[in-house]
Amino acid sequence: MVSSVFRISHLILAAISSIFLLIAAATGVILAIDVATEKATYPYKVQNFDDITLAQSLSVLRKVYPEITGISIDKNRFVTLEGFDEEGNSIKAIIDPNNGEILGEPFQKSEFINQVTTLHRSLFLHDTGRFMVGIVSFLFLLITVSGIILIIKRQKGIRHFFSKINKDYLPQYLHVVLGRLLLIPVLLISLTGSYLFMKRFKLIPEQKNIETSYQIQSPEEKKDIEEFPVFKNILLSNIERIEFPFDTNDSQDVFILRLKDRELEINQFSGEITKEVRYPYSVLLANLSLDLHTGRANIWLALILGITSFGIIIFNDYPYLYLNSFL
């Protein structure tokens, strides 16, 4: 009786969300391939990236570019510099942080990929579509959980979860095999998608940033920024963006350093931290969920997510083609 309830629930959930899951899975395959291709095609990441401090890089970059307005580091670990060269020409380019060499121009996603992304996220229906996709993500999580329970019951216990499967019915057999092979990435996709949905629509408690201001003495002389302790202790790999002061003679105009877990305001004369804003755990978890859901931080994860999305397309036929056997 309990087993029948889970079977029927699993089928109903799959049938209700099948069309939306098919769209999400098909677009997911395309987006995963795009992420993997981007990482493999554009060789803009330097080999020693994980060992370079901000101070080391700035000491070189300031000699090449007299005026720097900002430096950004994306999920591919490509370093984009904005500023002006010695001739006063505006520069916005991906550079080698070791020597300032221009490696390429910042690239934009193609219109096709932008359209696929919009379809994946909102079905071209803006917030209404995002809400619908979010609900489907949650239903997919329930489908995944109920599917795990059904496999456990089919295998007569969790200890036999990965034991040999009886080939009593080929379509069902293939469904169970794929379910076991893709269990972890499917669970990852559904769980992160559900969390991002709940975070966006504030279905989970909001947490505020933790702000701390520091009183510092006015420096008598201006230090070289390469000597700032905070710059010497922070690696480029931990930075998302640094914004430079607009007025280099105004002590109230500060560096803004955005890290993965916090934001710092730094006095441009002394190098001391004047303000620290720590992001709450909910924001950090949302960023992690986005990384895991999209595979944007790792090429292998992107490929696994692409394969899993293709597997979800295969799963999607099951409720209709094998209704009788499932019940």
Question: What is this structure's SSE topology?
Answer:
Blueprint: H1 2-41, H2 54-64, E1 67-73, E2 79-84, E3 90-95, E4 102-104, H3 111-122, H4 126-154, H5 170-181, H6 183-200, E5 210-213, H7 229-233, E6 239-243, E7 254-259, E8 262-267, E9 273-278, H8 281-294, H9 299-316, H10 318-321, H11 323-326
Antiparallel strand pairs: 1-2, 1-6, 2-3, 3-4, 5-9, 6-7, 7-8, 8-9
Helix pairs in contact: 1-3, 1-4, 1-9, 3-4, 4-6, 6-8
What report would you give on this structure?
This protein has eleven helices and nine strands. By secondary structure, the protein is of the alpha+beta class. A nine-stranded antiparallel β-sheet has the order 4-3-2-1-6-7-8-9-5, with no helix packed on it. Strand 1 and strand 2 form a beta hairpin. Helix 1 packs across helix 4 and helix 6 crosses helix 8. 24% of the residues are buried. The C terminus is likely disordered.
